[in-house]
Design brief:
The complex is a heterodimer. By secondary structure, chain A is mainly α. Chain A contains 19 helices and six strands. Chain B is mainly alpha-helical. The chains are: A mainly alpha, B mainly alpha. At the A-B interface, helix 3, helix 4, strand 2 and helix 19 of A face helix 3, helix 4, helix 5, strand 2 and helix 12 of B. Chain B: It is found in: Cell membrane. Chain B: Keywords: Cell membrane, Electron transport, Heme, Iron, Membrane, Metal-binding, Transmembrane, Transmembrane helix, Transport.
């Protein structure tokens, strides 16, 4: 249908712009909460240093927030510009979720962010605190709606295909909202955002402590970050989104790919800690396995199988054949043949229509696919194993490293010796990038693991793109590359400048660089 | 509850409301940004100008985001066709909007004059290019776009970016820029004192006649020179959304005939002209709020003129009339429209309420003293 290059370029553009957007989102999620906590302490204790903390960390938050807004606009435009058929096909479900995000979240955060910065002298203490918390609630609500939308792409429930409008339509909003995949995704993602904010504040505060400057300010920031960070990182790990991988076929495929689990082993399945996935020969070399663990993670039991990729692919073959029947009857329905036999056959097979559409990549007519073509399409349902296997492990390693850091800093804060543990402070500084690496690899696993689908089992990626030319795509990719590189450079420059200035940037006369010549 | 036909009509109104809210609020933000390098002669003056919208521009921009989201939810086929069809134009809008958040937030974080001057021009581009492009877009909505659907309802665009820039569409682009700049000058006048206030007044004085002239030319062109397709055989207004089920003939009538058939529609352009004319007359004098309200009324009239003129069309196809999308066959499902209706009915008043609160808190003239007093906090 469309050249592979169009599909590839569209994916590349979406992937890059989405990952780029997610450099700023988690910090916004985390910082707004930390600002809320700091300001609550200020209102309760009345100590000015906490107000300075809100203002200073708020400045860094603002530098980041501007980029979040900029790059977020791209994503809203991009469903329409680059994924037009997707927008037509699932707009009935995906659209209202985005609109709800606009009404409930974007307005809240964007309207109050101005007051957060400029309302200090115009609001009472409690009013300003309320504004800060509304900002935090707004950002997390935004995550809620977009993750319900993304959760629906991973595990589409509460919707059905309508042959008259040729698209998916919502049948139950409750099912879409309470989608288990979406709910765990939400908790996992916002908690990861809170970790990001905590790591950022912890790392920078450590740097001040190492340089023996602004000690009181840094020490208080450090304690808040370590406590909030510990709670958050525990949430990320314990409520990890792994539990979501049990629902739905494609989620199972993703899990099997992450574990490089080619064969179905008798229960309880063992967990592959390490190994080298070999896609061509469909095996994993040098695998180091821990018995029982995968079975426990995936099924929460020791007597259920975890299906391997090869068996899951066989399931796909069955569903593709059923999808061909659905497609055949859909064509009959559309040409006006609405006899009960056709209707019934369509209804019976329509859940597999998407699997039939996988064949469109190889044959426009779908129904004339031979066994070899069906096998090819079934092979497509297995994502590339090695990238998923590795990125997942990088994410987990980052998560546990941060757990260690937060546990140690929290312990030493409680025992009041954190300032003296210079190795830990140094480690906290060096580990500032970890939450970003974890977040980016996590999204990579979630989205690449869903391939070849945009909507799991419903709409293949190769059908979702807009009718564009490669020239148009190169124009936009070049535009994004230029704008994003320049903007990121500027943002990093400002961020580093203000981190170095520290709380002296508030010009209160109370901090490092100010006392000498104040 | 509401039947399918009614909810489709309600949503046509709602999306109109969101679109108008966008034009009214981000309209003056665009205008203020456009005027920034000209009315502000030095750094402090420019900071005064920026801070008249500094605390609220972000909330205003959400109307645009919501407009996109609502069209996605309610008219998915329109969202898909418009955004992918006008690919290059849409990306230019997006790229120009990129300048805004960082220009507002980063400009005053460093004192270097070159740094600040560069951001001022970035804000100028980000504030003047979008209204031109949106004007061109509206012009092309009126002219019709070259697109068609295949049997799978996949949309194909058969034109190019350059073809969008027809003389009529360019006139609409110029009108768009004049309109937001005029509206922005009125806002700036309302929220400033002294030299900036005076410069805003003389801008209003100069722009008023130009805008009225541009509006008159556009209106005349639309009513005399542009044909409007006509639906010869419509499917039921409560049928499932599939644009290919109807029959349309191109060039069935003119806009003039359409308005003649429903004379009450003339109210819209009349309100548009009176609003802008009044805003000009009041704006030259002492009126602050009155002039701004008048120009807001004018914008409502202009938006209604376009909406009424296109009704029931959302997107007219110039090359395959049957593929044109109307509010009856381009909408989402009944269920989804009801869901989105309830979300809107609950949240629209809440949003308006807290937006009003925010404006009340920050309201008051911005002066050089205000800026110098909070130099390290303000934009």
């Amino acid at each position: 249908m469309f050249g592979d290059d169009i599909v590839m370029l569209s994916r590349m553009q979406f992937g890059l712009t989405a990952l780029y957007h997610f450099l700023f989102v988690p910090l916004t999620l985390g910082m707004t909460f930390i600002l809320g906590i700091m300001e609550s302490v200020y209102v309760m204790t009345g100590k000015e240093v906490y107000k300075d903390m809100v203002k200073f960390w708020g400045k860094l938050f603002g530098i980041n927030f501007a980029m979040g807004v900029t790059t977020g606009l791209t994503l809203e435009f991009q469903f329409g510009t680059n994924w037009a058929y997707y927008s037509h096909y699932v707009g009935d479900i995906f659209g209202p979720l985005l609109a709800a995000e606009g009404w409930m979240a974007f307005f809240l955060e964007s309207t109050f962010v101005g007051l957060f910065f400029f309302g200090w002298d115009r609001l009472s203490k409690v009013q300003h605190l309320t504004v800060t918390w509304l900002l935090a609630v707004g950002t997390s609500l935004s995550a809620l709606w977009i993750l319900i939308a993304n959760g629906w792409m991973q595990h589409p429930v509460g919707a059905a295909f309508n042959y008259e409008t040729l698209r998916m339509e919502m049948t139950s909003f409750a099912d879409v909202f309470f989608n288990p995949v979406a709910q765990v995704k939400f908790v996992h993602t916002v908690a990861a955002g809170y970790v990001t904010g905590s790591m950022f504040v912890l790392g920078i505060s450590s740097w001040y402590l190492l340089n023996k400057r602004d000690i009181g300010f840094a020490r208080r920031s450090f304690s808040i970050a370590s406590a909030f960070g510990l709670a958050s990182v525990l949430s990320v790990i314990v409520l990890g989104d792994e539990s979501g991988y049990t629902s739905g076929e494609t989620q199972k495929l993703k899990l099997a790919a992450i574990e490089s689990e080619w064969e179905t082993h008798p229960a309880p399945a063992s967990f592959t800690v390490f190994g080298f996935p070999d896609q061509a020969n469909e095996k994993t070399d040098y695998a180091i396995k821990i018995p029982y663990v995968l079975g426990l993670i995936a099924t929460r039991s020791i007597d259920e199988d975890v299906k391997g990729l090869k068996d899951l692919r066989e399931d796909s073959v069955v569903r593709i054949k059923s999808g061909m029947v659905a497609y055949d009857n859909l064509q009959k329905l559309r040409s006006g043949n609405k006899t009960p036999t056709v209707m019934q056959a369509f209804e019976q097979h329509k859940a597999d229509l998407g699997y039939g559409l996988l064949l469109k990549k190889y044959t426009e007519k779908v129904v004339d696919a031979d066994a070899a073509t069906i096998q090819k399409a079934a092979n497509d349902t297995i994502p590339k194993v090695a990238p998923l296997f590795w990125t997942f492990r990088i994410m987990v390693a980052c998560g546990f490293t941060m757990l260690f850091i937060f546990a140690m800093t929290f312990y030493y804060c409680a025992t009041r010796v954190a300032d003296q543990k210079r190795w830990l402070l140094r480690m906290a500084v060096w580990c500032i990038p970890l939450p970003w690496i974890a977040a980016e690899t996590g999204w990579f696993v979630a989205e690449v693991g869903r391939q070849p689908w945009t909507i799991s089992g419903i709409l293949p990626t190769h059908m979702s793109v807009s009718s564009l030319s490669a020239d148009q795509l190169w124009f936009s990719i070049a535009g994004f590359a230029i704008f994003y590189t320049v903007l990121l450079t500027i943002e990093m420059y400002l961020m580093l400048k203000y981190v170095r200035l520290g709380p002296s940037s508030l010009h209160t006369g109370r901090y490092c660089f100010e006392q000498q010549h104040a | 509850m509401f039947d399918y036909e009614t909810i489709r009509l309600i949503w046509w109104v709602f999306i109109g409301v969101v679109g108008i809210a966008f034009a009214l609020t981000e309209g003056f933000d665009f205008g203020v940004g456009t005027l920034l390098p000209f009315i502000g002669k030095n750094d402090v003056e420019r900071r005064v100008i920026i801070n008249t919208v500094g605390a609220t521009w972000e909330g205003n921009q959400v109307w645009l985001v919501l407009l996109g989201g609502a069209i996605f939810a309610i008219w998915p086929a329109v969202y898909a066709t418009l955004f992918s069809g006008l690919y290059v134009a849409m990306l230019l809008v997006l790229f120009s909007l990129f300048f805004r958040p960082s220009a507002f937030d980063y400009r005053s974080k460093i004192e270097d004059p070159r740094w600040r001057n560069s951001w001022d021009w970035a804000l100028f581009i980000g504030s003047s290019l979008p209204p031109i492009l949106f004007g061109v877009l509206v012009g092309n909505l009126i002219l019709g776009l070259p697109f068609h659907f295949d049997n799978d309802l996949r949309s194909f665009y058969d034109g190019s970016f350059w073809a969008l820039l027809s003389p009529f569409a360019l006139l609409c682009g110029v009108t768009g820029l004049l309109l937001t700049t005029f509206h922005g000058a009125l806002f700036l006048k309302w929220r400033s004192e002294g030299v900036i206030h005076l410069r805003a007044v003389s801008t209003i004085n100069g722009l008023g006649p130009m805008l009225l002239l541009a509006l008159a030319a556009t209106t005349l062109w639309v009513f005399v020179g542009i044909d409007r397709p006509e639906i010869t055989q419509m499917v039921a207004t409560d049928a499932p959304s599939n644009p290919l089920n109807k029959t349309v003939i191109a060039q069935g009538a003119t806009w003039l005939q359409h308005f003649m058939a429903y004379p009450w529609m003339w109210l819209a352009p009349i309100i548009g002209f009176i609003g802008i004319a009044l805003a000009w007359l009041l704006g030259k004098g002492d009126s602050r709020m009155g002039a701004f309200v008048s120009s807001s009324l004018g914008i409502v009239g202009i938006a209604l003129t376009v909406g009424f003129g296109l009704f029931p069309f959302l997107l007219i196809s110039a090359t395959d009339p049957r593929s044109s999308l109307t509010l009856w066959d381009g909408s989402s499902s009944h269920n989804t429209m009801l869901l989105a209706f309830w979300i809107t009915v609950v949240f629209l008043p809440i949003v308006l309420l807290y937006t009003r609160f925010v404006y009340r808190v920050i309201w008051g003239s911005v002066t050089e003293e205000t800026v110098l007093k909070d130099s390290h906090t303000l934009y």
